[in-house]
Each structure stands twice: as structure tokens, then as C-alpha cells.
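Spend some time on this chain, C-alpha cells included, and walk me through the fold:

. . .
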Amino acid sequence: MVSQREKAKREFRQMMIAIIVIAVLMVVAALFWLHSQGELRVHMVIATILGVFFSVLVGTGLFALAFFSDKSGHDQQVTDATRGRDKH
């Protein structure tokens, strides 16, 4: 039987793959839009790729980590540990 933590890890990996694909699509869309507005320069392309990709990756990745923490049982372990400590 698959443990709760293993299932959460598998779901997190799948979520991160989807996030990376979405980030790449967002970069392509941003570059397409910039190209439609005028000439693309090398520094603009590099800044767009890095800025859009890492912004999407960090923003959604942090949410994915929060969901992973909850699904894997880490949050419950902390809650249980602090409840026991508060009773003393």
C-alpha cells in the first residue's frame, strides 16, 4: 500500500512538471506578444525568459509546496507537537 507521504511526493512531482510546462508556455506567449509589439533585442529576450519563467515557477511552486506539506502529513506533525508542548 502506498503511504500518504509517497502519494503526496508523486502528486508534487506531477504538479511541478505541469508548472514547468505552463511556465514555458507563458514565456513563449510573452515573447510572441513582445515580438508583435516591435523588434526584439537579445537583452529583452533574456530578461523576459528569466523573469517570466522564474516568476511563474516561484509563485506557483511555493503554493505547490504548501499543498505538499499539508498532504504529506508534515503540518499535522507540527500541530500535534505544538499541542503537546502547550499542555505542559
